Amino acid sequence: AEDNLNLVKSNFKILNSTFHNSTSDAVDSDFSEGEIINNSYENIAGDAIDTSVSKVKISYTDIKNISE
Questions:
Q1: Digits of tens for pLDDT over the chain (68 positions)?
Q2: Which of 25, 45, 53, 58 could cross-link to 3 by cystine, CB 3.0-4.6 Å?
Q3: Other C-beta atoms within 10 Å of 29: how many?
């Protein structure tokens, strides 16, 4: 698998989630708008959060041991 969560042309809210030991990006948002609140990212081989042409508000997020 590539990204754990791939959002395309979407409105979203990701709350209280955990992403660990991903082999690629944890969250990939393309042409989307949303919020990422109170999430944890650890041991991610790609980007924790990749926002290509997106508007994303990120708050209360813990990021540890990211490769890219």
A1: 589 999 999 999 999 999 999 999 999 999 999 999 999 999 999 999 999 999 999 999 999 999 96
A2: 25
A3: 26
The position carrying tokens 């990021």 is 63
Distance CA 50, CA 28 (A): 5
Which two tokens mark 25? Answer: 């990006």
Task: Please state whether the predicted TM-score (pTM) of the whole model is above 0.85.
Answer: yes
Yes or no: say if 54 and 33 are a contact pair by the CB < 8 Å rule. yes
φ, ψ at 26 (rounded to 5°):
-75, -55
